[in-house]
Write a structure and sequence with these properties.
single chain, TIM Barrel, globular, Beta-glucosidase, GH_1_N_CS
C-alpha cells in the first residue's frame, strides 16, 4: 500500500555514526576514544567483533555515498569523530582528520546529498575520559572549542548541524549503569554528566554560530513511558523514569529549566547561568525514537530492560516487558503509534517552544537481506509520523537508522540495523530489500511532492 504524501521539501535521509562505522581507529593521527578503550576490554563486546574495524567507512566512504545516491537520499547524518579531529580532546588539531571530513562533505555535495554532521556521538577522546569525562565541567568547554574547529572548516558547505546525540543514553548507560563506555556505575551520582553534556550543547551552539554555521539542532532520544499498572507505586516509578528519560534533557533545552527543582539542586556549577546557555534558541529539534517503555515500581531483583541491560534493584523504578506486539531481532517491541504518541506529547508540553522537528533516528534490527520485518517497521512508523503531522506536529524530515549494518556498541556485529548488509569478514556491501523499498518510497514521494 502506498504511503500517504508527505509535504513538498520533506527531507528523506539516513544516519550513521563514526565509532560504529569508520574503523581506522589509529589511522592518520586519530587519537583513541573512551569507546575504543572500553571495547578493547575482554568481554565488553558480546560477540567479540572487532569494533576498531567498524565497517571500513573511513576507506570506503565513496562506496557508501554512492549507496546513498542510489537510495535517492536527500541528506546523510554522519558523525565527526572528536578524537580524529582533536586527538587529545584539547590542544593540537589533527589536520588529516579534518581532511577526511572535508573529502566526505565534498563527496556528498557532489551527489546532491545534504551533509548533516553530528559533532558528538559518544566517542569522547580518551584523554578527557580518563580525566573524568562528562563528570567534569571542563569537558563542555573543550567540546565547544572542537565544534568551532569543525565549523570553521566545513560551515561553507554544511547546511545542517547536530551538536550532541542522545545525552540520556550516555548518562544512563555509560555513567549510571556501566553498560556502555566509560563503564561507571554511579546511579544518581551520574547526574553531572547530564548537566555537562547539556552545557556542552549550549556552548557549541554559540561556537557554531560564531564560526558561520547555521541550521543547528541536536538529537534527543524519546520514548513514551507506559505505567505497568494504575497502582500508585507503578505510576510513581513510571513518572520518575519519564522525567529522567525524556524531560531531564528536553526541558532545559526548550524551556531553560529542569523539570524538577530537586534535580536542579543536584546539578553542579552555576545552574541558573548554565541554563541560560543550554536553552540557546535552536533551529530545529531532533527526535530519536525506537519504541515505548513500560515502567513500574522497583522489581525485587535486577531485571532486564527492553535493550537487555540490567536495571539494578536499588533503582526506584523497574522496566517491564511490553507484550502483545511483534518484536525485532533485538527483542524491542514494534509499536509504530508510539512515535505519534511521543510527538504529540512533545507538542502538548512545549507548544510554540518546540521548534520544527526532524526524526533523526528510527529503525530496527532484523537479520537477513530479505528483511520484510524492517519494511513493516519502517512503513508503520512513517504512517504514524504522517498522522502526527496531520495532527499539527511540524516535522521536516526523517532519517532512518541506519544506512549500513554497523557495530552496535556492546552487541558488536550481532544486531543489524542497516538498509545495506555488511559481510564483516570482507566488508562487502549488499543492499537489502528494505533499501529498495526505501528508495521506492523516496521516489514516489518526490513524484507527488
Amino acid at each position: 500500500m502506498t504511503l500517504p504524501p508527505f509535504p513538498h521539501g520533506f527531507l528523506w535521509g539516513a544516519s550513521a555514526s563514526a565509532f560504529q562505522t569508520e574503523g581506522a581507529a589509529a589511522a592518520e593521527g586519530k587519537g583513541p576514544s573512551g569507546w575504543d578503550a572500553f571495547a578493547a576490554e575482554p568481554g565488553r563486546i558480546k560477540d567479540g567483533a572487532d569494533a576498531a574495524r567498524g565497517t571500513g567507512f573511513h576507506e570506503r566512504y565513496r562506496e557508501d555515498v554512492a549507496l546513498l545516491a542510489g537510495l535517492g537520499a536527500g541528506a546523510f547524518r554522519f558523525s565527526v569523530s572528536w578524537p580524529r579531529v582533536v586527538p587529545g580532546g584539547s590542544g593540537p588539531v589533527n589536520a588529516a582528520g579534518l581532511d577526511f571530513y572535508d573529502r566526505l562533505v565534498d563527496e556528498l555535495c557532489a551527489h546532491g546529498i545534504t551533509p548533516a554532521p553530528t559533532l558528538y556521538h559518544w566517542d569522547t577522546p580518551l584523554e578527557l575520559e580518563e580525566a573524568g569525562g562528562w563528570l567534569q565541567r571542563d569537558t563542555a568547554y573543550r567540546f565547544a572549542d572542537y565544534a568551532r574547529v569543525v565549523a570553521e572548516r566545513l560551515a561553507d558547505r554544511v547546511p545542517m548541524w547536530i551538536t550532541v546525540n542522545e545525552p540520556a543514553e550516555v548518562t544512563l548507560l555509560g555513567y549510571a549503569l556501566g553498560e556502555h563506555a566509560p563503564g561507571k556505575k554511579l546511579l544518581f551520582d551520574a547526574l553531572p554528566a547530564a548537566h555537562h553534556q547539556l552545557l556542552a550543547h549550549g556552548l557549541a551552539v554559540g561556537a557554531l554560530r560564531a564560526a558561520g554555521a547555521r541550521n543547528i539542532g541536536l538529537a534527543v532520544s524519546h520514548t513514551p513511558v507506559w505505567p505497568a499498572s494504575e497502582s500508585e507505586e507503578d505510576r510513581f516509578g513510571a513518572d520518575l523514569y519519564d522525567t529522567i528519560g525524556n524531560w531531564l534533557f528536553a526541558d532545559p533545552i526548550l524551556t531553560g529549566r529542569y523539570p524538577d527543582e530537586n534535580f536542579a539542586a543536584l546539578m553542579p556549577g552555576p545552574v541558573a547561568d548554565d541554563l541560560a546557555v543550554i536553552s540557546a534558541p535552536l533551529d530545529w529539534y531532533g527526535v530519536n525514537y525506537y519504541n515505548p517503555t513500560r515502567v513500574g515500581a522497583p522489581a525485587p531483583e535486577a531485571v532486564e530492560s527492553f535493550a537487555g541491560f540490567e536495571m539494578p534493584a536499588e533503582l526506584p523504578f523497574g522496566i517491564r516487558e511490553i507484550e502483545g506486539y511483534e518484536t525485532t531481532a533485538f527483542g524491542w517491541p514494534v509499536v509504530p503509534d508510539g512515535l505519534r504518541e511521543m510527538l504529540l506529547l512533545l507538542k502538548a508540553r512545549y507548544g510554540d517552544r518546540l521548534p520544527p522537528v526532524y526524526i533523526t533516528e528510527n529503525g530496527c534490527s532484523y537479520d537477513g537481506i530479505e528483511d520484510a520485518g524492517r519494511i513493516r517497521y519502517l512503513d508503520g512508523h512513517l504512517r504514524a509520523l504522517h498522522r502526527a503531522m496531520a495532527e499539527g506536529v511540524d516535522v521536516r524530515g526523517y532519517f532512518v537508522w541506519s544506512l549500513t549494518d554497523n557495530i552496535e556498541w556492546i552487541e558488536g556485529a550481532a544486531q543489524r540495523f542497516g538498509l545495506v548488509h555488511v559481510d564483516y569478514p570482507t566488508l562487502r556491501r549488499t543492499p537489502k530489500d528494505s533499501y529498495r523499498w526505501y528508495r521506492d518510497v523516496i521516489r514516489a514521494q518526490r513524484a507527488v511532492g
